[in-house]
Design goal:
Largest sheet: 10 strands, mixed
CATH class of the largest domain: Alpha Beta
CATH topology of the largest domain: Pseudouridine synthase
Radius of gyration: 22 Å
CATH architecture of the largest domain: 2-Layer Sandwich
Number of strands: 16
Strand content: 25-35%
Distance between the termini: 25 Å
Order of helices and strands: HEHEEHEHEEEHEEHHEHEHEEEEHE
Number of domains: 3
Helix content: 25-40%
C-alpha cells in the first residue's frame, strides 16, 4: 500500500492527546492544530480544565467524524476526599449503589441542558484508600459526570470532594496511545526539520481505526461515483473485513488506504463474498474530495 504524504495525514487523521491539567480542551485542541499546521481541528468528549487524560483530537476532514467517537464509553480514575475516614468495605458498599442505570443532572458548569437523564455505570472498582482519601476507577457510558457521582457519594460519607480526575480511555483508545503536547511538537519538528517522519506518523491514527470501523476497500473505478453521493454496489468492492453485519457502519477506503467516506452496510461480510450484484453500502458521510479519482461512468 502506498504511503500517504504527511500533509494529507495531518488533514484527515486523529491524534490522541494526553491533556494536562490547567488548559481547557478547546485550548489544547487549538494548540495541536497550530503545532501540526492543520486547517481545522476538533475534540471528542470535553474534559474540564482541571481534568487530565485521554483527549481524541480530529484533524482536518476527520472533524466531520467526531460524532461517531463522542458516544463511546469512558473510563476514569478519581481521587476523592470524604468527610470522614472510610473503610474499604464501607466504600465498596457505596459503589454498589451506583452501578447500573443511574439518574444524573449535569452540573452547573457543564454546557448541556440541566435536565435529569439516565446513564449506565458498568463498574466502579476500588483501588486504594488512605484515611479520608479514596482512589477508584469508573467505567461508564458517555455523558456520565464523575463530579456528580462524587456528590452522590457525599450523602453516605459525610461529604466528599473530587481532588483529581483522569480519563484513561475512550472506547478502545487507552492512555498508552496518548501523547503529550511536547512529544507531538518534538515529533513534528523531527519530520519538518530532519525529514524523520516515523515518530509523527506513528501518532496519527487513520479515522477508521480511531472509530473502530470494519473496512470495505473500493475499486478505483467506483470511488468518484461514491464521492458524488452514489450508492456503493457490489461490483465496486475490491475486498472487505470479515466483521461486517447488515446495518453496521463501515469505513470505505481506497487501495491506498485513503478514507473515501463512512457508509452503512447493506450486505454482511458473507453476502459481500457471495453476491455480485446489489447495494453493498449506503453512503453516510463523504470524506474524499470529488475529482481525486478519475470519473469512470
Amino acid at each position: 500500500m502506498d504511503k500517504q504524504p504527511l500533509s494529507i495525514l495531518t488533514e484527515s487523521s486523529f491524534i490522541i492527546v494526553d491533556k494536562p491539567r490547567g488548559p481547557s480542551s478547546h485550548e489544547v485542541t487549538a494548540w495541536v492544530r497550530k503545532i501540526l499546521g492543520s486547517t481545522k481541528s476538533g475534540h471528542s468528549g470535553t474534559l474540564d480544565p482541571n481534568v487530565s487524560g485521554v483527549l481524541p483530537v480530529a484533524l482536518g476532514k476527520a472533524s466531520k467524524l467526531l460524532m461517531y467517537l463522542t458516544s463511546k464509553d469512558k473510563r476514569y480514575v478519581c481521587l476523592m476526599r470524604t468527610g470522614r475516614e472510610m473503610t474499604e468495605r464501607e466504600m465498596k458498599g457505596i459503589y454498589v449503589r451506583f452501578v447500573g442505570v443511574i439518574t444524573q443532572t449535569p452540573p452547573k458548569m457543564s454546557a448541556v441542558r440541566k435536565k435529569p437523564r439516565k446513564r449506565k455505570v458498568y463498574y466502579i472498582k476500588h483501588l486504594q484508600i488512605r484515611k479520608r482519601d479514596v482512589l477508584f476507577e469508573v467505567h461508564c457510558e458517555a455523558g456520565t459526570y464523575i463530579r456528580v457521582l462524587v456528590a452522590d457519594f457525599a450523602r453516605f460519607t459525610d461529604g466528599a470532594e473530587m481532588l483529581e480526575l483522569r480519563r484513561t480511555s475512550v472506547g478502545s483508545i487507552e492512555e498508552k496511545s496518548s501523547h503529550t503536547l511536547q512529544a507531538i511538537s518534538d515529533a513534528y519538528w523531527l519530520a519538518k526539520e530532519k525529514h524523520e517522519e516515523d515518530r509523527i506518523r506513528s501518532m496519527l491514527i487513520p479515522a477508521e481505526e480511531a472509530l473502530q470501523l470494519p473496512k470495505i476497500v473500493l475499486r478505483d473505478a467506483a470511488i468518484e461515483a461514491v464521492c458524488a453521493g452514489a450508492l456503493l454496489f457490489a461490483p465496486g468492492v475490491e475486498k472487505h473485513d470479515v466483521a461486517i453485519t447488515r446495518g453496521s457502519l463501515v469505513a470505505l477506503v481506497s487501495r491506498k488506504g485513503e478514507l473515501v467516506g463512512v457508509g452503512r452496510a447493506e450486505m454482511s461480510s458473507q453476502e459481500l463474498l457471495m453476491k455480485k450484484k446489489g447495494t453493498a453500502a449506503v453512503i453516510v458521510r463523504i470524506m474524499m474530495k470529488r475529482g481525486t479519482y478519475k470519473k469512470e461512468w
